[in-house]
Automatic annotation (TrEMBL), chains A, B:
CDD domains: Fur_like. Keywords: DNA-binding, Iron, Metal-binding, Repressor, Transcription, Transcription regulation, Zinc. Fe cation binds at H132. The keyword Transmembrane helix does not apply. It comes from Cohnella lubricantis. The keyword Phosphoprotein does not apply. One of its GO terms (biological process) is regulation of secondary metabolite biosynthetic process. InterPro entries: FUR, Fur_C, WH-like_DNA-bd_sf, WH_DNA-bd_sf. This is Transcriptional repressor.
Amino acid sequence: MTEQVDKINRQLISRGYKLTPQREATLRVLLENEQDHLTAEDVYLLVKNTYPNIGLATVYRSLELLSELHIVEKVNFGDGGARFDLRNEDQPHMHHHLICTRCGKVEEIKDDWLLPMEHRIMREYGFTVTDHRLDFHGTCQACAVEEKDASRKAVS
Amino acid sequence: MTEQVDKINRQLISRGYKLTPQREATLRVLLENEQDHLTAEDVYLLVKNTYPNIGLATVYRSLELLSELHIVEKVNFGDGGARFDLRNEDQPHMHHHLICTRCGKVEEIKDDWLLPMEHRIMREYGFTVTDHRLDFHGTCQACAVEEKDASRKAVS
DNA sequence: TTCTATGCAAACCATTTGCAGGTCG
DNA sequence: CGACCTGCAAATGGTTTGCATAGAA
């Protein structure tokens, strides 16, 4: 993980920014919670564990900086606050999400299924795609089971 | 267009709601601007032309009601305010968007290319998809031309 | 010193809510 | 009357900004 921090540090420097302790703490929280989709508030509370004096505004500023450098991706599931996903550099595009509308859990799909579609968009619309986002809404497996249980109970 | 209003009126009634003048005015604005992706504020200002006394809160409440009935779709492009798209009933799923990051224009794609993907998600993840959203970010044809012009000028 | 970054509090802005009146059946 | 609906104003909640200070080059 520290290699990743080093690497990002170099990215920051090459763009004229510094990896301050606050920025590093924020970054480490993101690295340690790569699977989750944290809100700014979540990140703030977690960073406070290792850096209690940090201000919420600084977390926002750090997250925005990391977004600019395409190190994290700011995503919006429509439920109030924005969330921040670490970007995986060996994946040129954002990963996709399965969002359960019942329990709110967000699962990730790592495959990138959309390249053929992007070529088609270029051909048919003359639109050069640089990025995309794809979210599916529905019911996750666990919730499907629970719903079946609930309806069975309702009948009996 | 009035047939559409009638139809939606019936949908409202069947769910126990009324098509009040305010709701109708809001709905008509959406029908008249089907191609645009209006924010709540946009809708508010347009409705005010035909119904000057309407309050912003009422517009929000009407839009929320229409969202619940799946007559309009609330979408969030990540630029501050939510936008509202009329849903096309012969399309079971949301249409897709091409969002130009240079001029901000939003184009629509009417095709639904994702059904095979949804079947695969069911098989591989046990996730029941009820809806999806797919947005592509990039440069539209017009902007691509302008950028080429700009770079040519820079060279000469 | 000079420029950047930080913490705090205040400001902002889209959206929601409380409430007192209004409408319709 | 009773249930729903509206307009207004106030509250809310996530995010941004102003500003004085602190730190690094």
